[in-house]
Amino acid sequence: MSRTFLLGVDIGTSGTKAVLYTPEGETVAEAARRYPMTQPHGGWAEQHPSFWWDAVCACLRELTARPEAENGEILSLGLSGQMHGSVLLDGEGIPTGPAILWCDTRVQAECAEIEDIFGGEMLTAVTGSRALCNFTAPKLMWMRRHTPDALRRAKILLMPKDYIRFCLTGKYAAEPSDACGTLLYDTRNFCWSDELCRGMEIDPALLPPLVASAEVVGTVTPAAAAATGLPVGIPVVGGAGDNAASAVGVGAVTPGRAFVTVGTSGNVYTHTDRFAADAEGRFHTFCSAVPGEWTFLGAVQSAGLNLRWFRETCCGSLDADAAARGMDPYVLLDEEASAWQAGGGGLFYLPYLLGERTPHLDPNARGCFIGLRPDHDRGAMARAVMEGVSFALADCKGLFDACGVEVKEITFCGGGGKSALWRQIMADVFVRPIARPRSGESAALGAALLGAVGIGLYPDIPSACTAVCTAENSTVPQNAAAYARIYRVWKTLYPALKASFAAAAALSE
Length: 509
What we know:
Elements: E1 3-11, E2 15-21, E3 27-34, E4 46-47, H1 49-65, E5 72-81, E6 87-89, E7 99-100, H2 108-118, H3 120-127, H4 137-146, H5 148-152, E8 156-158, H6 160-169, H7 176-179, E9 185-186, E10 191-192, H8 194-200, E11 216-219, H9 222-228, E12 235-237, E13 240-241, H10 242-250, E14 257-262, E15 266-272, E16 284-287, E17 294-300, H11 304-314, H12 318-324, H13 329-338, E18 348-350, E19 368-370, H14 378-402, E20 409-413, H15 420-430, E21 434-435, H16 442-454, H17 461-468, H18 480-490, H19 493-507
Parallel strand pairs: 1-5, 5-13, 14-20, 20-21
Antiparallel strand pairs: 1-2, 2-3, 4-7, 6-8, 9-10, 11-12, 14-15, 15-17, 16-17, 18-19
Helix pairs in contact: 1-6, 2-4, 10-16, 11-14, 12-13, 13-14, 14-15, 15-18
């Protein structure tokens, strides 16, 4: 008897991952390919869409050749992807040039112009966000001024994962969780905004038809089958932006459910069944993969980056010490940090190595240790870093609380979630149980589950998550009262240093 599988593909900024799952969410096999990000000028970040398609083809050919996949049937394919990238195709479906990525900052002048045209209050009321360099619309405005031929030849605008869906099925489409990151989408009413297009002089004919995240858009074509090794005819669904797909993968798809990610950057992402927006744009209101519902996203510029920086810059003997004990360096750092009590004897860390988004919107903010004493060692400093990142993420949750959206359950994703100490600190700071996700590839699992819903294997997205997205035993708060006192002091530090950060930035100009 043949086995059946679900296929999830996540098109990230640094690489693509493809994972085969059983219908119950067990990982069968996975493959990954990396690709470069081109930075031809300072602040620029580009990738050619062919990088993604080549990586997807290589991953899928590898998966379909695995012994685990023999005599099996792939029931559906779901896609997750990096958001905001500007993929423009000509009338033949060929990219007009490289995609300008989410992390590209060349469009600051265009963002200022968008704010002048509409005003921040209108932007947040319609899109759920202010005009930031991350979004797609300012990239199109920049292209109109600097690469007009590429924009003139364009017939359709797609997001990165939507381009891969087009390559697989030949169908153009967008879905709400990614469309809301363009700054051309009415997030409250789930439709493209004619008013925003007119104000930015963007042709609405560029915008693709809208589908639901779990809606079947098309099937794998013979040409795509030849390139990927997949059988012809596999249903492909709308999919979701990476954070929305991760929310599905960890089960954060009902009010009160949230996840925290500590990778290079950090996010706090919570589900809500009502639209609300922060007029100052300190967090984003995006569309959920669940039809007719939303999510709040608080973004911390540097999270795990802080601990990596500390290890690489301030811990010269750590690798040798770890090797001598047969340990991973981060495990040793955890052990040494655990030797210190909460607050590290009055040592604080501000984790603003790259400035900060939520809640400060301050590009001049910088990282710093405060309260160093001669007896503070690398363990104390490592603990302060973990605590500082946790406090910065708690700042995001505080904004959600102010909107009346209560976070009850939290799943801790990303590399930081592997640390038992960091999970305990997070539980104490958030005063909530902290769970680890079942799958280390939550975006790919979420994409696969969207495919399962699309073919009727589950009746809806919450049902799929209830059936599949179990978590490991939660870490419960043990020292919340102490961390509440420490957090109150920590919150006074940024306001006290804000003017100094700005003055220091002026010195470096």
